[in-house]
């Protein structure tokens, strides 16, 4: 069931009632400013979603990269500590 199914049942009187409530809450002076910022946020949201969709399409169209062969790992060198040098010198 869609969570936005109630929007289909909104008619003229309900929209008018919602507009009047918004008018009472924000006042006539702030309404243009409110709707302007609402429009900007909708535009930004649409721009962001279209950019994401474009990135996904581009990623799907790209051919997968073949992994580059790596050189075999060399055995790690054993590092003698300074203490072992001293003990060797003491033994000699």
Automatic annotation (TrEMBL):
Residues 53-92 are annotated as: Disordered. It comes from Thalassobacterium maritimum. This is Sec-independent protein translocase protein TatA. It is a single-pass membrane protein. It is found in: Cell membrane. Belongs to the TatA/E family. Part of the twin-arginine translocation (Tat) system that transports large folded proteins containing a characteristic twin-arginine motif in their signal peptide across membranes. TatA could form the protein-conducting channel of the Tat system. Residues 53-68 have a biased composition (Basic and acidic residues). Forms a complex with TatC. InterPro entries: TatA/B/E, TatA/E. Signal peptide: none annotated. It holds the Pfam family TatA_B_E. The keyword Transmembrane applies. Keywords: Cell membrane, Membrane, Protein transport, Translocation, Transmembrane, Transmembrane helix, Transport. Transmembrane segments: none annotated. The keyword Oxidoreductase does not apply.
């Amino acid at each position: 069931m869609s969570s936005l199914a109630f929007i289909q049942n909104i008619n003229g009187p309900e929209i008018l009632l919602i507009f009047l409530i918004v008018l009472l809450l924000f006042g006539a002076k702030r309404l243009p400013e409110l709707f302007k910022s609402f429009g900007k946020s909708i535009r930004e949201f649409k721009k962001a979603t279209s950019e994401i969709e474009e990135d996904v399409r581009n990623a799907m169209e790209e051919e997968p990269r073949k992994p580059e062969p790596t050189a075999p790992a060399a055995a790690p060198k054993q590092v003698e500590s300074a203490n072992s040098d001293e003990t060797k010198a003491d033994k000699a």
